[in-house]
Amino acid sequence: MEDGVTMPVGAYQTLVVRKICRCSWLGNQIPYILAALLDISPSGQVPNIVKKLTDACVKAEAVDLPKIAEHILELCSSKGHKALALQAVVDVVDALDAAAAAKSKEERLQLNQQQGKILQWLRHKLPTNADLAQGWLKQMKGRQGSASAFMLALLLGMSEALSRLHQPITDYLQVLVASGFQADHHLQRSAWLGKLPNAPGPRGAALQQALLTCITNTASSGDMTGQGRETGQGQEAGQGPGPGQGWQLASRPVIAFAVALLEKGNVRAAELADALSDGEAVAVAAPHVAAVQLGIKILVASFEVDASMRATLLRELQGRLVGVKEEVALPFVAVLGLLVQRHPRAVLEHANLLKAALDRFAFMTPTTALGVIIALQPLALLKKHIQAYMVGPSGVLRKALFSRGVASRLVAVRGLLYIIVQQLRTMDDGGGDEGDETLEADPELSLSQSLPASQQPSLSAGGGGVTLLHELMGLMRRSLTQQAPIREALYQGVHAILGADPSLQDSMLELLLPHFALFLQPQGPPLKLAACASLQDGTVTVHEPIDVLLTCVRQVLLLAQPRNEHMADSIDGMVGGETTPSILRPAAEASQERNPNQVLQGNFSELKQRLLDSKPEDFGLDKDCEWNVASSQGGLHQAQAGLLLGCLEVVIEDAVDDATGPDGQSSAETTGQQLTSLLAFHDSLTTWAVEGRHAKHKKTDGSTQGPSQKRNRPPISKAAPAAAGASGPHAQTAYVDKRSPAMSVGCLCRLLNAITDGGLVAMPDNQTQEAGPCGTASEPSVHAQLACSPMTQSFVLQSCLRMLHRCQPDAAHHAVVIGTAGDNPNRAVAQELLANPDWGLLAMPLIGAVQNIVQLSVLKGRSKGKQADKLPFMALQCLDTLLRLGRTCEGVAELLREVPAPGEAGPSEASTGASEAAQVIWEHGPLLHQMLQALLQAGRGRETEVLTQTIAFVGGLLPPALHEGISQWALTACEDPVTQVTHPGASKALISMHLSLAGCEDIPACMRVSKALEGVLGSSMGGPTPKSQEHHLQVTSKTGSAVATMLFTHMETLLHDVEWLVAGLTKGSLSGEAAEAQRASLETSACRRLKGLAGVLGSGVACTLKGPPCDHIARLLVTTYRLLKAVTIHYKAPQRAQQVLPCAAFQDMVSAVHQQLTPDVYHFIFDASNVEDGDQNKVPNAEQKVRRAKKEGKQMGLLVKAIEEWEINLIKLTRSCGLNLMRHAKKSTNRDFRINIVEVPDADDQAQEEDEAEEQANQGSDEGTQEDGDEQQVQTETTKRRKDANSQVAS
Fold this sequence. Notes:
The protein is mainly α. It has 60 helices and 2 strands. The protein has a two-stranded antiparallel sheet. A hairpin with a 2-residue loop joins strand 1 and strand 2 (539-542). Helix 29 packs parallel to helix 32 and helix 30 (505-517) packs across helix 35. The radius of gyration is 40 Å and the shape is globular. The N and C termini lie far apart (87 Å).
């Protein structure tokens, strides 16, 4: 400054500060520069100082960081920028942390230590400066940006230091996590967003990494390593404060935050199981599932790194297992299972908390209780006191076994069987997986692992020589006297018990033999169905699941010894007729002659033979009996028929095993006849039960049902288990066509292969067979005829479909997956005992059978038989259910991996960067496409609809880059002039697949469908009349309304993507030159997207719409104009800021909306407003009803308001930027009300009509008295005066 020149003090200080900020700051001088600026800096220069400091702090020393933070806080607080104080500290720390990424480990550790000191200092500073925290939190809520570990630690520390901010900070963090995972979901689902540059806003993966880093930093204390860090001894010994001392302030709040995430998640068991088993769940899972997975990872990481918080964490888990829904409790069960699996030693240090959780076992839901038992079972194998607390004389499972509730007893039986089988299996004495903790088991338990069951000590730790064998037999004897669900669980566990210890075979046979004989009878029908199911107080009750018992008996016989050794002895005595069958003799007498295995084998073989010779009428079940489920007798017959069908399926599986065994060719004729007889029996009984289920009620003698009882619901069994996880054919008294089949997955696979290969038995070498599954050169064999029979194919497909429906994600299966939580030796036992069968084995044979059935149906055309004509539809239903069970891209790829891909399939350029699972699905895509083309050419509408929905589901699992190819399949089918899709469902499915998988070509796809709707439905703007008979993308007048609703729903999703992007741009999370260029690119993309969507909406609103689509497009238009308003406000500069000219894309978008959309919307509104009131007694026509509904709806007022608000903001932007954005807009009109001048009646005409009516009345009346004449004269004068008045009004 020149000599003699004076200026105000404030101006001089501003000049000095500007010069200082222009200079280069040395790293070691930054604290001193800030100290000097405290006294001379004016209030307006604080943001400039903070910006300069953020750029220069990368050169600062780590040891100076606490002093720099103190100066920043003092500078901002003293100058009136309290909301900027904490954010400035966070920005400086983050910038220094980013610069330290390339430095050595020691330097990063030192920086971490200084950050911990800052957190600790702020922890003591904030309680007396709460306005700093409140201002910063308010500022954070108004912006979207990335969150660092230091920022999250500071927020979590604030929530504990200031109790009144605990809930607001927790809510903000939950919103931050939800928005982050929602952003990941948007970017993955939308092909348009996926191709844009880095969109604004937080990311779920980055937030997860920041939170886990925050937890890891709590354990980065330099002196606390190894065992000292694990047990917390280093901190207790006073070895000095480590760098994690400040970070540890966030330990308790981060656990509370993770618990809040799990409580709010409310995920289903299937979603949670997929998230736990999939390593890429963060990127592919739904936002709420990803948030729950993040909470699980936080709790597991906190338990690993911070020993001082383990007791607190286990108490949180314990409290969340009781008194909550299963959806809330299952994530905490998953955390418990993961902790036990990975850190058993650390968990056992808090055994008292585990026992406290087990004490609440009776108050848990059945699924939660089963999951807790499975999760804690590994500890029971390691410590005897944990095992005694679970299964001892006063253990929780023993108490539950004597509970009154069936659900509690069912859980107890399942839990005891699981623990017994684990005890019987030989445990691996080696160490755990790499990185896992290992712990030596209890010596007494370890020695018992190599002993047989007859020598192993009892689980209940009782004396007197009680062994595990005695305990197992006692459990089985007690379970055999209880309800059907408990017996069913016991029967399903026998196979696992024998697989774990084959020496128990004789004991099992001795136990099953007398119980099985209770339900066999020597004369009449072979089974006592009345003892298996009966009526109790008018309600159907299943006492014995005889089909499950028969399956158990067959499995025991197969495991005991080869069946052929004693087959001759058991069959000769039954078939010859001279020897009395063993079933007619008491079990004790039979056991004296033969061992239990032979007796049980004979009973089973005789039952099989007698069922082959039986008919449904022998069991009191025929076509004429009562099948109506509304009556008690009908419900009983349905239950008994279901049990009998299950027994037939067990015998069918036994015959299939004989046919496919080593001697299958020699006994092919016999097994073929047996299967034919059994399948005919099964088909007849199923047909009667299904057809008579809703037939008219038949009154029988002794029936107590009244006429009013016909409307009641079907009687449900009292034995239906309330326990979650109870799966199987008797989970409830189901209809016969809904029950789960009693056959195994392996048997179904062999039957499916028989359909494909033309028979169960392979052809001998000296016989030839033509190509094809059902054609032979000579007379076909019995098995070939059986495989080609529609009855057999229908039975196999129905059984597969019911098996796949049974394997839908249920509570027991996912309790197993969640409880074990990983691939460990215990999981195999859990899957065998509690989970669903391995339905994935059906994939390859089922897909082959579906291909053959579809090909034959196309070649032969529609069959005259009702059963044969349903086969293609049933086969495609099985295929759809199978692939949907895969749920994820990896799951579906695992199903298709063994299926031969078509010859022309191969990797394409689009699938080059896709994952291995996506490439597998893409290679098998032509297989589905070929079947779709064949069905379209054959004109099979229902089958086309199912297969199209399947392809759309599978295609939706692929990356967006692969969607366009699949969408092109649907477009080709829709544009094919030869193929006319007359089925409405198929037409809608094809168009839906074309829209949902269009990828980056979604706007042209929507425009194509919109133009097709306009051609079919006609235009409300006076265009051509609708031509529903012409070819318009397979859209017809019958499907036009549904297709319009589908189109508008899809466009609503597209608008939501644009709305999400605009919201991220509006919050201003981008800064810097590179970020400004990125912002401009994103704004241009958003405007172009809106322009395309406006064109589609303009075409759609011009269609003649009636019904729900009319209201739907009104809501869509409201959303569109509100979004246009948000974009306009985004371009409007704040007050006292220079207005920048909007980009060219925005101007083009505004012009397109004014020219293409708004005029049609005005016509849409006027058409709704132009409704004649007319005569109230006159019945309005359909068009008037539509108009009146549009006028009286709420959406019209909202639409008018949205248009006016957008145009007002456009006018404001026009005045600010000097560019006329309203030049293409339609002139303003009154949109709320218009008077139709033509409809106003003329006054003269109205008066003339009244006079003529009065004259006609006077001419037809009789002559009255003089008083009447006077009245008539008065009326005439009144009429004259009215006419004169009307003439004056008209003039």
